[in-house]
Each structure stands twice: as structure tokens, then as C-alpha cells.
Design goal:
This protein is of the alpha/beta class. The chain is built from 15 helices and 20 strands. It folds into 2 domains: 8-246 and 447-470, Aldehyde Dehydrogenase, Chain A, domain 1; 250-431, Aldehyde Dehydrogenase, Chain A, domain 2. Bound molecules: nicotinamide-adenine-dinucleotide (NAD).
Length: 471
């Protein structure tokens, strides 16, 4: 069977490109499909189409836009299994566990929730001296740039609030995982007027060109800190609105009163959701001296039961690392941690099965700050477990990092945990869980983890400009 060739979407039309690039399955190395490689002229055409469509889309009624978002959510539901399979093949994550089916479920749930959000006019003053109203108006063309870890869900997080608020969109998915996003945008185009959502795919240069494009009014970017800074610099000349959802190095602090056996499952999935390739995964685990051994024991025991392998096989709940660059990075960090005295509780060596970027769940004890596996974002299935004895001091160590996306505290005493939670420098903090996001709670990073938030009313407002009317 010939390899399927995927199109761009410009002004409602599936658009061919003269060049394509192969998208490979990280489980097998086989080609999943041929992605379109857009030219700069095609990017310009997509931005122009979005600009044209904005003229009428921004004038549609609130109800019309909410209905369209619900219709997209329904269409995602109807096609969920097909997209989940494509996502598993290009991304590697399993169908089951917190994998592709979970991601598709999240995508439709977020779209439905966001459809029902509203941006009412606020009356700030209404008295003898006059009336002051605050309106929320769409910005124009929104450029969306997405990463390879949760490509479908993140595309929905970007696109749905943008169009709900009356903007139009040009999205550029990651070159590692563009195919499921192309299918998603095809479904959206079956619902929306031409040009409201456009898609270009290609290499990183396309993202850089979007960041400085004169026709784009706002960039919503999810990806690494290094690239986020480049986006911000490139966007400066045209003074674009920006939401940057960047990397994290989330700390989890286990207090001495926690029950090691009971928290093992939550710790495991907090750290190893999507094989650790999740922005707000638990990436540094701090455990009190009194229960250090027990937490290591129960976490290892739980982790050993989790099956890793080809995501299309229904029994697997963990897949490979998505690409070679990340695979090499995780290998290097673990090798280095070992050299610096880290004790491998499980994993620690690549799985030599000859194909795929498989790296086992790896738990590394007896490491501390100064070891790159602790200090840097590993973004893969390797968790450093750090010992501490003083609670105030561990809070300072947890905060001693340039990132500030999420954090967690684990304890039987919720009040004591909350007190510590409030001292953590991060956008979201969980108690006795980690990484659970939801569409009604604003999510975003502080410090080096980004600017702005997504989700909820506050997330929707980021796709608007304020206009004040005084009479
Ligand atoms: P990346 O920064 O390498 O790539 C992200 C996107 O940016 C891709 O589409 C890429 O093609 C594009 N890009 C590359 N160079 C560009 C440039 N100069 N200008 C504009 N765009 C450019 O990130 P990744 O490796 O795909 O994703 C992993 C990172 O994303 C991790 O650090 C992770 O923590 C972070 N992430 C953050 C969140 C969040 O919500 N905070 C969510 C998911 C992932």
C-alpha cells in the first residue's frame, strides 16, 4: 500500500505541497505517513486566508461560535478511535493507560467546556458621572505552534479558545507528530467557514517565520524554554501578544507522615505519564529521610508491574521515547547520574530490542542538586529521588530552579501540605497527586516556565484585547 500523503489546509482547502517529509513510528522506525512541507509562500497564503476569514468570523454571534466549538468536540468524539490510532503510530504513546484514547477524550472534553465559556461586557461604572464598559474583542490571526508530546490535546487547547473568542488561526504542528493534527484540522474545516483554521507543516524555520509574521497578531506557543525565548525575541518587532507554555522541572515533596504504599501509584503516574514526556510531570522527587527507603521500595514495586511496548498492543500502558534526540538526552543524563554516584533502583540501560526508542522506567536514588538529571528537565522516563531531612530547607531546594510550572506535596495532613504548597514557586501545585489539569483551572508557568495561562475564563481572555467604552 502506498504511503499516505497528507495535505496542508489553507482557506478551507486541502492543499498539496511539492515537498514532503517522512513521519516515523518511534516504536518501529517505519514510516507512518508523508507530511506536507509548506513553503514560505504557503505560510503567507495561510495567514492571508485567516486574515480574510477574520473579517466575518469576528462578527459572528457568540452562539454561532459556541455551537461551532461544540460541533468540533462532537466530531472529535465520533472520530476518536481513528485519530487515537494515528496518534499512537506517530507519537508512540499507547492506546491505553494515560495514552491516545485518554488524549482524545481530553480533547473533546476541553472543546465542549471552552465552548460554554463566555466573555460578557463588564460595566465598570454606571452613575451620574457616566458609564464605563469593558469589552473583550478578538485579536485577529492567532499563530499556534505545538510540540510533539500531546499534539492533539494541545492543538485543541490553542485553537478552540482562539476561535471561541472570534479569532482565526494558523497552526503549525511539530515536525515529529504533524499527522494527527492535520486530521484534526480537516475535521474542524468540515464544521467551520473557510479560512477560520488553517494548517501549515514543515520544519522549525516555519515557526520562526510565524513568530515575526506581520499578519499574525498573537502567538500561542507550547514547547521548550529555549525555543520560547526565540519566539519572544522574534515577536518583539511586531509587538505580538504572547502566551508561552514552556518547560518544567516540577518538584514533588513527600512529607515524613505520608504512607509510602498508598502514594506509590500517584507518584508513578505523576512522573511517568506519557513516559515522562509531559510538561507538568513530576521530574524531581524529594523524600524525607524517615521514609526514603520505603518510598523507593513501593515505587519500584509498582513501576515493575507497568507494561511498556508497542502502543497498538492493548496491554501496554507505556511506549517508547518519541524521538532520537530525546532518547539520547535521557540516556546521557542517566549515564552521567550513575557516574556521579546515583543508585539505579530499576532500569538505567536502554532496552536493546533492536528497534524503537525504548528506554525503561528508570528510578535513580542517592542523587542531589548539581547532578544534571536533577537540575535539568529530563522529559523522559527517568526520575531522580532526592533525600532530605529538613522541610524548610527542601522548599528552598525545590524553588532553586529556573522553572516554575507545577509542584506537589504528599502528606496525610492536608493543612500542613497546603502550607508548604503555598511556598512553592510554580503555577499549579497539587496535594497527593501531580499533573492533573482540568479545563476550569488556569494553567501556566511562573519564572522560566512561561508567560500567561491557558484554560478557564482567564485562559480565554488571553485571546482578546480589552476595549473600554466610556459614555
Ligand atoms: P520545541 O521547542 O523543540 O518545539 C516546539 C515547537 O516549536 C515545534 O513545533 C517546533 O517545530 C517549533 N520551533 C522550533 N524552533 C522554532 C523557532 N525558532 N521559532 C518558532 N518555533 C520553533 O519543543 P518540543 O521538544 O516539541 O516539546 C517539548 C518541550 O515542550 C518540553 O520542554 C516541555 O516541557 C514543553 N511543553 C510545555 C507545555 C506547557 O504547557 N507548559 C506543554 C507541553 C510541552
Amino acid at each position: 500500500m502506498a504511503t499516505k500523503r497528507y495535505p496542508l489546509f489553507i482557506n478551507g482547502f486541502a492543499t498539496k505541497t511539492s515537498e514532503t517529509f517522512k513521519v516515523r513510528n518511534p516504536s518501529t522506525g517505519k514510516t507512518v505517513g508523508l507530511a506536507p512541507k509548506a513553503t514560505m509562500a504557503q505560510l503567507d497564503a495561510a495567514v492571508e486566508a485567516a486574515g480574510e476569514a477574520f473579517k466575518s468570523w469576528s462578527q459572528t454571534s457568540d452562539k454561532e461560535r459556541a455551537d461551532a466549538c461544540h460541533a468540533i468536540a462532537a466530531s472529535i468524539e465520533e472520530n476518536a478511535e481513528e485519530i487515537a490510532r494515528l496518534l499512537t503510530r506517530e507519537q508512540g504513546k499507547p492506546l491505553n493507560g494515560l495514552g491516545s484514547r485518554f488524549e482524545l477524550g481530553g480533547a473533546s472534553a476541553w472543546a465542549h467546556y471552552t465552548a460554554d465559556l463566555e466573555l460578557p461586557v463588564e460595566v465598570l461604572q454606571d452613575n451620574n458621572e457616566g458609564k464605563v464598559e469593558m469589552h473583550r474583542k478578538p485579536i485577529g490571526v492567532v499563530g499556534s505552534i505545538t510540540p510533539w508530546n500531546w499534539p492533539v490535546m494541545i492543538a485543541v487547547w490553542h485553537i478552540i479558545p482562539a476561535i471561541r473568542a472570534g479569532n482565526t488561526v494558523v497552526i503549525k504542528p511539530s515536525p515529529y507528530t504533524p499527522l494527527s493534527t492535520i486530521r484534526l484540522v480537516e475535521l474542524m474545516n468540515n464544521v467551520l467557514p473557510d479560512g477560520v483554521v488553517n494548517l501549515v507543516a514543515g520544519d522549525d524555520a516555519l515557526g520562526a517565520a510565524m513568530s515575526s509574521h506581520e499578519g499574525i497578531g498573537k502567538i500561542i506557543f507550547t514547547g521548550s524554554c529555549a525555543t520560547g525565548k526565540k519566539v519572544m525575541a522574534n515577536a518583539a518587532e511586531t509587538l505580538k501578544r504572547l502566551t508561552l507554555e514552556l518547560g518544567g522541572n516540577d518538584a514533588g515533596i513527600v512529607l515524613p507522615d505520608a504512607d509510602p504504599k498508598q502514594i506509590a501509584e500517584g507518584l508513578f503516574w505523576g512522573a511517568f505519564i506519557n513516559g515522562g514526556q509531559t510538561c507538568a510531570a513530576l521530574k524531581r522527587l524529594y523524600v524525607h529521610d524517615d521514609i526514603y527507603k520505603d518510598v523507593c521500595k513501593h515505587l519500584t514495586r509498582f513501576a515493575k508491574k507497568m507494561k511498556m511496548g508497542d502502543g497498538l498492543k492493548e496491554t501496554n500502558v507505556l511506549g517508547p521515547i518519541q524521538n532520537k534526540m530525546q532518547y539520547d538526552k535521557v540516556r546521557k543524563l542517566v549515564k552521567d547520574a550513575k557516574k556521579r554516584g546515583g543508585k539505579i533502583l530499576m532500569g538505567g540501560e536502554p532496552m536493546n530490542n533492536g528497534k524503537g526508542y525504548y528506554y525503561p522506567v528508570t528510578l535513580v536514588a542517592n542523587v542531589d542538586h548539581g547532578v544534571p538529571l536533577v537540575d535539568e528537565e529530563q522529559f523522559g522516563p527517568a526520575l531522580p529521588i532526592i533525600r532530605y531531612s529538613d522541610v524548610d530547607e527542601v522548599v528552598a531546594r525545590a524553588n532553586d530552579n529556573p522553572n516554575g510550572l507545577g509542584g506537589s506535596v504528599w502528606s496525610r495532613d492536608l493543612e500542613a501540605a497546603k502550607e508548604i504548597a503555598l511556598k512553592l514557586e510554580c503555577g499549579t501545585v497539587w496535594i497527593n497527586k501531580h499533573g492533573m489539569i482540568q479545563p476550569n483551572a488556569p494553567f501556566g508557568g511562573v519564572k522560566g516556565s512561561g508567560i500567561g495561562v491557558e484554560f478557564g475564563k482567564e485562559g480565554l481572555e488571553e485571546y482578546t484585547n480589552i476595549q473600554v467604552v466610556m459614555s
